């Protein structure tokens, strides 16, 4: 796992959207990009620019995963049967850190990744510290003993801006990943366009 060296909310400002739906996002105060040239007039975006933006937005939403890891996920999605865009979303939602985030065991995707890497998460009763691990339908994800007392997790449980989706069945301090969701089922705060991501990598 790579370490973030820049403010995560700069992703929001660069894209001009509150991609995680967080109340403290700087986009809520300033809709323009960061830096001294952030307020300059925006020129017309090319097709390539739209595709790149869609990719950066989706990649950023899932914790700003590395380009290598994201492209590998796309390549896997393209080899599966069915729509590549839908497959890509399904694979990203199956990441362990994302299931922890969806279960409201952490307030942000970045803290969800940290909770996993610090060994606070169990999959089917076995400790797992690999954030990118693929969770399968029927797998049970639970909190460790120490995690149940963490203030971070208690805070996440009370967040009003998001709900636990239907494909993650909550039961106290554990959840069951019931199925791989479709694009329409994933509760994104902003519009995601995986079809443009497919076009970007298909060039």
What does this structure look like?
This protein is α+β, with helices and mostly antiparallel strands. It is 37% helix and 8% strand. It has 8 helices and 5 strands; from the N terminus they run H-H-H-H-H-H-E-E-E-H-E-E-H. It has helices at 9-15, 47-61, 67-79, 84-93, 96-102, 109-117, 151-157, 194-201; strands at residues 121-123, 126-127, 140-143, 168-171, 174-177. Strands 2-1-3-5-4 form a 5-stranded antiparallel β-sheet. The longest helix has 15 residues, at 47-61.
What's the SSE blueprint?
Blueprint: H1 9-15, H2 47-61, H3 67-79, H4 84-93, H5 96-102, H6 109-117, E1 121-123, E2 126-127, E3 140-143, H7 151-157, E4 168-171, E5 174-177, H8 194-201
Give the overall silhouette: globular
The description of the largest β-sheet is: 5 strands, antiparallel
Strand order of the largest sheet: 2-1-3-5-4
> Using only CA atoms, what is the Rg?
17 Å
Q: What number is the mean pLDDT?
A: 85
Head-to-tail CA distance between termini: 28 Å
| Helical percentage | 25-40%
Q: In what range is the share of β-strand residues?
A: 5-15%
- The assigned structural class equals alpha+beta
Total DSSP helices:
8
Poorly predicted residue ranges: none
Q: Care to count the β-strands?
A: 5
SSE arrangement, N to C = HHHHHHEEEHEEH
């Amino acid at each position: 796992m790579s370490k973030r060296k820049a403010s995560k909310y700069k992703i929001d400002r660069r894209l001009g959207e509150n991609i995680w739906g967080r109340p403290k996002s700087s986009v809520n105060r300033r809709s323009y990009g960061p830096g001294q040239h952030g307020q300059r007039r925006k020129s017309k975006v090319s097709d390539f620019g739209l595709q790149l933006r869609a990719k950066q937005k989706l990649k950023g939403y899932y914790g700003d995963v590395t380009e290598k890891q994201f492209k590998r996920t796309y390549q896997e999605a393209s080899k599966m049967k069915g729509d590549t865009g839908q497959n890509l979303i399904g694979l990203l939602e199956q990441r362990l850190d994302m299931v922890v985030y969806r279960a409201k065991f952490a307030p942000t995707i970045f803290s969800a990744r940290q909770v996993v890497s610090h060994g606070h998460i169990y999959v089917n009763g076995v400790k797992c510290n690999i954030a990118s691990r693929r969770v399968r339908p029927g797998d049970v994800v639970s909190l460790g003993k120490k995690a149940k007392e963490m203030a971070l997790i208690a805070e996440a449980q009370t967040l009003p801006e998001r709900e636990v989706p239907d494909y993650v069945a909550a039961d106290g301090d554990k959840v069951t990943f019931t199925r791989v969701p479709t694009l329409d089922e994933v509760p994104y705060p902003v519009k995601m366009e995986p079809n443009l991501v497919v076009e970007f990598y298909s060039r």
